[in-house]
Amino acid sequence: MRISLRIALAASAALLTLGVAQAQEKTLRIGTEGAYPPFNNLTADGQLVGFDIDIAKALCDEMKVKCTFVAQDWDGIIPALQAGKFDAIVASMSITPERKEKVDFSNKYYNTPSAIAVPKDSTLKGVTKEDLAGKTIGVATTTTHFNYASKTYTDSTVKGYPSSPEEQADLANGRLDAIEDDIVVLQQFLDSPDGACCKILGQPSPQPVEIFGPGAGIAVRKGETDLVNKLNSAIAAIRANGKYKEINDKYFKFDVYGAES
Amino acid sequence: MSATATMVERPPPRARGWPRRRIAGYALVGLWILFGIGIVSYLFFAWNPDFFAKYAPAYLSGLGVTLALVSISMVLGAILSVPVAYGRMSSNRILSGLAYCYVYFFRGTPLLVQTYLVYYGLGSFRVELQSVGLWDFFKDAFNCGVFAFALNTAAYQAEILRGAIESVPRGQWEGAASLGLHKLQTLRKIILPQALIVALRPYGNELILMVKASAIVAIITVYDLMGNAKLAFANSFDIQAYIWVALVYLVMVEILRHGVEWIERRITVHLKR
Q1: Chain A residue with minimal CA distance to B239?
Q2: How many domains does chain A divide into?
Q3: Residues of chain B neighbouring A101 (CB-CB closer than 8 A)
């Protein structure tokens, strides 16, 4: 009893001081997924690596703040941001109207198209609604690709997966006729031994900006305009000083930034 | 009468005043009540007819999938649990060893892992499965869920069954034998009616655990109750999606709990004094 009372007191004291501590925090805590190679991935020894991570580090250097990283499941990444588990999401999150209702976004830091991959022996000819009618398409839920697939391929069965690796596994083992994902993520999968089964069939067209958004941005809690402004000028700065190109070339053969906005 | 005779053991008198323990108790209960009021008022203020109109049908279909999954797996598990329980009680060492290993594996590993192993693990043996004609079965996510859940619950149900049967005193077997009843008759007419009373509560618990565990199938692309809640959340980013689903599970479990209690009251009438 005595002990439990002490714990309760300590816990409430900790809760009270937590708010104060958070306000004093000078480091920027960045949340990311860690299951979306080559953008962000957890290595076997628990290190976060990838394009998102390198960009985030470059932005932090540019803003002269110390950054720490937190890996968080994709499904819960926005609630975790809102709950204050971290201060910004750098996880290839597309800027969409639905998400904008919950969080604020920086400008895009890259924009790559959505594409469809199929087994190499697939008889599919194209990626239109008619081509894929009656087929089963796997997509990771809570993604723009999922929103697009469930709105576009209404004559197909769209199966939702927790993250990209699961949908890729089911494409490889033949449960799925096709998967839709970011073209860079698909290419990474196809270049791996598991991806030898499959090929990219094409890119759905048009890719409406209402669904896919202008690209991937950095999400922060609503109303943190100061942080957004800092991030925007940092993105512009690393674009201008060649740091972005250096990171880009480490991962990709083309400029993933897309059209200049 | 001697003084010692009046020393009767009785519960200690109720504490008077406000000892620390009581204060802490009231504070904790108060916290819980506040928490409950918080959830109810949240749901009241966040009441969104659009959300309800948009996702209620999906929740209902998800509920159907959940109920189908749990009931099919429970029944298949019950059937499978009979030979396993028989093996566990068998004096044949190979048989009991096999049954022991089965129960050991399925009780010793998380259901989540078993579901993943069945769905993604068997998925990588597609060619082999196709050659024996089983791929069509395992291609479907719902079948994989039922398969994993039935195997898992069979292990638990076998232990419930074994424990219940062994809880009936040996004398009952011997008494029946002396009356000339053979083993199967004894089991059916004397042992099981007594054992199933003991087994009822554990069976009820297992059913409730299965209802809650069924949410796991959402990650292998089955759109059960939880799967639809995840979808609703994905489209709306509204935490209501999960609060409603929690309430539905809560109601289901309450109904099951009362059902089990009702059955127990019915079948133990003869034991009441």
Answers
A1: A79
A2: 2
A3: 237
